[in-house]
Amino acid sequence: MTSAGKLSLGCIADDYTGASDLANTLTRCGLRTVQTIGVPSADLALPEVDAVVVSLKSRSIEAGLAVSRSRDAEKWMRQRGARHVLFKICSTFDSTDAGNIGPVMDALRADSGDAIVLVTPAFPETGRTVYQGNLFVGSVPLNESPLKDHPLNPMHDSNLVRVLARQSQTKVSLVALADIARGPDAVRARLADLAGKGFGAAIADAVFDRDLETIGTVALDHRVSVGASGLGLGLARALVASGQVKSQAASATVEVAVGGPAACLAGSCSQATLQQIAKAEQAMPVLHLDPDRVIAGKDEARRALAWARERLAEGPVLIASSSTPEEVAALQSRHGRDAAGHAIEQAMADLAEGLVQSGVRRLVVAGGETSGAVVDRLGIPGFLVGAEIAAGVPVLRAVGFDGGGMLLALKSGNFGGPEFFSDALTLMR
Ligand code: ADP
């Protein structure tokens, strides 16, 4: 690993899965991308990369805290030479009148010295489009979509010019699709006009990827922008088209083999994962944990670890806590849902730690919460994103990890085809 050259793009993501989605999108566009867990230490050694996505958990915390964490992330990225910083928000603009999109945008704009910030949550490939400042989720306006009933951030207004104005200190206007369609110079002229009138932010309409490419091209004239993975795509394509970044195949950067023993952990009880475990039985030894014994104490994880150690030299193994919906419901009624979930996640983290101590350097984890518990326990500061095993599930190479070279695949429950575990291990050499 060399120390990093200048970053072409810095991204601050307001939640972890959004960060993964963005990192995956940037990688697909040819940017060598690292995703970090939280703001990295000043001395984190990075391989040569084009983009860093810092994952925060700042979407629904107090606005002041979201601002200070985002500023810390921005400072880190500027120190690494990032000229442009994207504040990555949800493509459904999840926020309230108290924030946190407006307050974070205001702070980053003030720090950057930009007169005006382009803002768009559009991500056409997932059905998020913006027209006349109104956000559509599929065919319906945001305020008629399921987001109207979101437990933390209910969205009752689809007009983002109004939504952002309520949570920002600055005046907010619109760059309408008619200007976007006329290309970058028309957008630049519109922004100059708005900035001259004292507007500090503009919602940009976007219906197709080419609209995001136009917005990305113009955004690169500025130091800060705000958007979802769609704007990430626009920025990445603009960086490649302008020659500022040489497009790379993701696999080339992650493909250096690490070798050594491999293991899989499954804590997801989703239908897809249950089917994948059944398939894996034909390809590798599988141990099914007894969930009641897991909750009772550490012995069950110790037993599983001993079982794995006896087999690792022969090939990959899979340890699963997963059960059917009926068994999950029964366990939860005996122990409580949170207590059961937490105990099993911690057992999975114990197992991951023990497996890595036993030499495992290729680890596949099924389950979103389960993956979070494992990554936290292993203390991995970040990942270089590689080729996709299945849609939305890339191979990850740990960076800044004390244990040396390590490959991971972190799969949210429902992702991947029936042969997911074997597919993952085929790519993780
Ligand atoms: P997914 O991505 O499918 O939602 P998660 O890992 O996010 O998977 O969530 C699965 C949750 O279920 C975790 O909290 C995990 O600890 C818990 N769990 C795992 N196995 C069992 C089981 N047999 N019974 C009840 N809960 C379980």
Spell out the key features of this protein.
single chain; 429 residues; alpha/beta; Rossmann fold; Molybdenum Cofactor Biosythetic Enzyme, Chain A; 2 domains; 15-stranded mixed sheet; three-stranded antiparallel sheet; 16 helices; 20% strand; globular; binds adenosine-5'-diphosphate
CATH architecture title of the largest domain: 3-Layer(aba) Sandwich
Spell out the CATH superfamily of the largest domain: Putative sugar-binding, N-terminal domain
What separation lies between the terminal Cα atoms? 18 Å
CATH topology name of the largest domain: Rossmann fold
**Into which percentage range does the β-strand content fall?**
15-25%
Summary, kept brief:
The protein is of the alpha/beta class and 429 residues long.
Describe the structure.
By secondary structure, the chain is α/β, with parallel strands linked by helices. The chain contains 16 helices and 18 strands. It has helices at residues 16-28, 63-79, 101-112, 160-167, 177-181, 184-196, 209-219, 229-241, 250-254, 271-280, 291-296, 299-311, 325-335, 337-357, 368-378, 420-427, and strands spanning 9-13, 33-37, 51-55, 84-88, 117-120, 128-131, 134-137, 140-141, 171-175, 199-204, 224-227, 262-266, 286-288, 317-320, 362-366, 382-390, 393-399, 407-411. It has two domains: 9-241, 3-Layer(aba) Sandwich (Rossmann fold), CATH 3.40.50.10840; 252-427, Four-carbon acid sugar kinase, nucleotide binding domain (Molybdenum Cofactor Biosythetic Enzyme, Chain A), CATH 3.40.980. Strand 7 and strand 8 form a beta hairpin. The chain has a 15-stranded mixed β-sheet with strand order 9-10-5-11-4-1-3-2-16-17-18-15-12-14-13, with helices on both faces. Strands 6-7-8 form a three-stranded antiparallel β-sheet, with no helix packed on it. Bound molecules: adenosine-5'-diphosphate.
